[in-house]
Structure formats: C-alpha cells, structure tokens
Specification:
With 109 residues, this protein is α+β, with helices and mostly antiparallel strands. The protein has a domain of 39 residues. Helices cover 47% and strands 14% of the residues. The chain has a 3-stranded mixed β-sheet with strand order 1-2-3.
Length: 109
C-alpha cells in the first residue's frame, strides 16, 4: 500500500493508519519535507511532525525574535526605568551576620 499524502494549502496531510503501516516511508518523507506534515486521525488533525533540522531552525528563529522583542521593549521603556541603589532594594531584608560583608567577601564564602 502506497503512502498517501494529501497536498493542501497549509500543511500536507497523512493518516495515522498510513504511518502505522509504513513508518519507514513516512519517516523518509518527513525528513525530506520542506514544511511540517499534519497527521490525521479519523479525518481530523491529530499531531504535526517535522524533521529535526527544521524544528531546531524554528526554535532558533523564535529565540532570535524573543531577543529582538526584549531589546525593543527595553529601548521603548528605558526612559521610564528608575534605578535604585542596592541599599534601597534590600532595606527591609534582614541579612544577619552577612550585613557587614562586602560583595567580594560574600562571593568568596
């Protein structure tokens, strides 16, 4: 039985039955695909699969966009940022025996 891939405007589709019967062929198709493949079960979308290189590329792209968004947010808000001293930030913290120690002394503990 041949693997049947339904070409679509969005994701190409394959049935879970075809996967269970012909995993090796489906694996080759997914590894060579240029976009993710939708797996259907009982005629409805069940899961989406893609090759590892595509997945890693998408993750890297998302991380790049997250970095860019963080930079843009910082730049748009930097005029509104109010910096306070560490003394002010920790004024209500009971540091006990460490209260008289410098940062260097604390780091060398």
């Amino acid at each position: 039985m041949a693997v049947i891939i339904e070409r679509a405007m969005g994701l190409d589709k394959i049935t879970s039955t075809d996967i269970s019967r012909q995993y090796s062929k489906v694996s080759k198709i997914v590894k060579n695909a240029v976009k993710p493949l939708e797996i259907t079960k009982n005629g409805k979308a069940d899961i989406v699969v893609m090759n590892p290189e595509m997945f890693m590329g998408i993750l890297e792209l998302l991380e790049d966009y997250q970095d860019k968004i963080a930079i843009m947010e910082y730049q748009s808000n930097k005029e509104n940022i109010e910096f306070i001293s560490t003394e002010e930030a920790f004024k209500d913290v009971d540091s006990g025996e460490y209260s008289k120690m410098s940062i260097d002394e604390l780091l060398n503990q």
